[in-house]
Write a structure and sequence with these properties.
eight-stranded parallel β-barrel, 736 residues, alpha+beta, ten-stranded antiparallel beta sheet
């Protein structure tokens, strides 16, 4: 072995080792104490031990007086056995770290000790900030907990500050670390791809580590989503049992890891992915991580979903809970081939059907490089006068004259090689020196780490809105991921790219909202590829999926609803055969699926028959009568499309006096039975409700139009009859 080592490192090339100082820094002792972070129905208990180590003791139901945890013993080594609240690489810790720092002398050890904490209340939010410090390096970390009282949601993030005299490198900089104790941990998470977003998958966690991660750079929620549910049992339930839900408010690369240690405790570390992102922190600088959103409920998956939705409507979505207009989008009805006349006639049809907005999608721009397909024009945002010689204001004003709002599509983060912008600013394109700049959907990505590019992207929005004073809505798209990543602007500091790119995009979003707080904006990214609470703080809604097929949308919308609220979920009725799947379903079924979110249409109205047109008018009118419940009601999922032939859900008003129920028969096999029992939820058992089926001349339920006690409806009395697959019904419930 000595000869082998000598061959690797020649003796004459070895450096004389430095003398190691045996002096150690004394860490001041502190008085042990318990810190409680509370909401109306949850409690997070943290403890500072005598050494100054901050530990997590409890998260879940309120556990009474927090001081009772003062002598709580985890077993094993009393000094090192309790779970650290924000574990750092080094010291006695050897699990998955939330913080990993490389110091100038090559050391990678960080030991954080308690300095102090304070709490402040504003409105319905109590913010607790806990200060930690590494006494050897001077590194400081603030752990920030925002407890939203009514919604039972706690946001967690960290502020990492280099209080030393030399720069350091952050190699891992998580938003939070949370410890849980249970007999079992059933993880519900989401996977998919284009047109198959938010497919639910469940895994019973075992020892070692399970990781949810995206390294796409953009479109980070296309393959998976930075969110999850944890059932603290083996069995998933909508209505009962302890469940923890988490969602990272970040639109870039993310990493959420779940590790069960030798003591059977689960540690969840979540934040920005450290992939290719060693972040430099100069002396005196700080880095603030994105929020990790947590909630707990003992009412199963339904309980945590309702908590998240209530929080999102108040805090997580721009103008969340506001009723967004029904609309007709031009895309699947016209694609790139349209004229002014095409658009005006679609506007006429939209107005006649009772819709409230018309949205002009892709294809309206490009002069020297006309946008007649997806191969040219991105980056050159002049109106294509060959298609619309009268200009955008003419079309927008016509929509307003018909009583409609007007929206328009942009994809400002991208550029086609066939464009003036690509020729004039090749240094603005994401690229790696000497390597091919790969295309996807015939386009490249603009480098948003560059402030000049940020100005340009903001300018695209600004100039587009200036095309007409009658623009009410922007559909903001992003249609590819990052490949062969790199930034000419960042020079030698390429490790900062993925973080700086996303922070640059967020700066643009913030500038847009500062100037245009009242314009509605949809977050679209080849469908649902940017559905996260990082983006939604600036957007009114998201495009759930490019797949508009009602059969596919049932599962997509079900998975989405576990984390994100219906008020932000755009859901459109499209033509058949469906353009993505070729499936054929009835117009009523398509409407009944789309009406469970923000209703829109994505087709050429003139393709509808007279009978279909009448049905569309009827469905749109009835939707307006109950959509306030869809936007602001509490969601109860009655049955799952993963568990059988039926899917059903309902939205219930806060006072429980009104509700709307959606029932879908996805597959039918037994003609001898016909009816199916749905046990309704969220109703007041003592109230009587009149039930009225919508948009049906002959009801599928024998009790239609009659009144029944809430107890009867919740305990097995509601049994509509479906005799075909892909049929559906919507019922409105109103108390007397």
């Amino acid at each position: 072995m000595a000869a082998l080592l000598g061959a690797i490192i020649p003796a004459q090339g070895r450096k004389t080792p430095k003398k190691i100082s045996r002096e150690t820094v004394t860490v001041p002792s502190v008085t042990p104490q318990v810190i409680a972070v509370k909401t109306s129905h949850t409690q997070l208990i943290l403890q500072v031990d005598g050494r100054g180590t901050l530990q997590t003791l409890h998260y879940g139901a309120p556990a009474g007086d927090p001081s009772q945890f003062m002598d709580f013993h985890f077993g094993g080594n009393h000094n090192f056995g309790a779970p650290t609240a924000y574990p750092a690489a080094g010291g006695t810790f050897n699990g998955q770290e939330a913080l990993h720092v490389l110091y100038p002398d090559g050391s990678q050890n960080t030991e954080l000790y308690y300095l102090g904490h304070e709490s402040a209340a504003q409105g319905g939010v109590i913010t607790t900030t806990i200060h930690l410090k590494d006494y050897v390096t001077g590194l400081e970390v603030d752990l920030v907990y925002e407890a939203h009282q009514v919604e039972d949601v706690i946001l967690m993030h960290s502020v990492i500050r280099n209080a030393g005299k030399k720069p350091v490198q952050l190699r891992n900089f998580a938003s939070s670390s949370l410890n849980l104790v249970a007999d079992n941990y059933l993880l519900t998470h989401f996977h998919g791809g284009w047109a198959t977003e938010m497919q639910m998958e469940q895994t019973l966690l075992t020892h070692d580590t399970k990781v949810l991660e995206s390294r796409r750079g953009t479109q980070n929620t296309q393959g998976n989503n930075p969110s999850f549910l944890l059932t603290l049992d083996r069995n998933f339930s909508e209505t009962s049992g302890e469940v923890v839900a988490g969602a990272l408010a970040w639109s870039g690369n993310f990493r959420i890891s779940f590790e069960i240690d030798q003591s059977d405790r689960l540690n969840i570390v979540s934040g920005i992915s450290p992939f290719a992102s060693s972040y430099p922190l100069a002396a005196g600088d700080s880095f603030t991580t994105p929020d990790m959103v947590y909630t707990w409920s003992n009412e199963g998956a339904g309980g945590v979903s309702r908590n998240l939705h209530r929080w999102a409507r108040s805090y997580g979505v721009w103008n969340g809970g506001n009723v967004n207009p029904t609309l007709l989008n031009s895309w699947e009805g016209a694609y790139f081939s349209f004229t002014t006349e095409t658009l005006l006639r679609m506007i006429d049809d939209a107005a006649e059907m009772g819709l409230e907005m018309f949205v002009l999608d892709d294809g309206w721009f490009g002069l020297e490089h006309p946008r007649n397909d997806d191969k040219a024009g991105l980056g050159d945002w002049e109106v294509n006068i060959n298609k619309i010689p009268e200009g955008i204001d003419f079309v927008a004003s016509y929509a307003h004259s018909k009583g409609l709002k007007f929206g328009i599509w942009i994809e400002s983060e991208m550029v086609n090689p066939d464009s003036n912008l690509a020729q004039e600013h090749p240094d603005w394109i994401v690229q790696s020196p000497g390597r091919e700049i790969y295309q996807s959907r015939n386009q490249w990505i603009l480098d948003l780490s560059n402030p000049a590019v940020q100005d340009f992207v903001f300018g695209v929005f600004d100039r587009t809105v200036s095309l007409s004073p009658n623009i009410d809505y922007i559909k903001w798209d992003s249609n590819r991921r990052i490949m062969s990543f790199g930034s000419p602007y960042l020079g030698q500091e390429q490790d900062r790219f993925f973080v700086e790119y996303m922070q640059g995009l967020y700066k643009v979003f913030a500038r847009v909202r500062e100037k245009y707080p009242d314009i509605a904006i949809q977050c679209c990214s080849a469908g649902g590829s940017r559905v996260d609470y990082g983006s939604l703080r600036w957007f009114n809604e998201f495009w759930t999926s490019d797949n508009t097929d009602a059969i596919s949308r049932v599962r997509i919308q079900y998975g989405t609803s576990l984390i994100y609220p219906a008020c932000a979920m755009a859901s459109h009725v499209s033509a058949v055969p469906n353009h993505q799947t070729n499936n054929v379903t009835s117009l009523k079924f398509r409407f009944d699926v789309a009406c469970a979110g923000r209703l829109g249409m994505e087709l050429q109205p003139k393709s509808l028959s007279a009978e279909e047109r009448a049905m569309a008018d009827r469905c749109i009118k009835s939707y307006k009568g109950y959509r306030d419940l869809v936007f602001n009601g509490d969601l109860y999922r009655i049955s799952s499309p993963y568990d059988g032939d039926y899917y059903s859900l309902m939205y219930v008003s806060e006072d429980r006096r009104r509700a709307v129920l959606f029932c879908y028969c996805m597959r039918f096999q037994n003609h001898s039975i016909g009816s199916h029992v749905f046990r309704l939820q969220g109703l007041d058992p003592s109230l009587r409700y009149k039930i009225t089926e919508q948009n049906a001349d002959k009801s599928c339920w024998w009790g239609n139009g009659q009144t029944f006690e809430g107890a009867f409806l919740c305990e097995g009395g509601f049994n509509p009859c479906f005799r075909e697959a892909n049929t559906s019904a919507i019922f409105v419930l109103e108390s007397l």
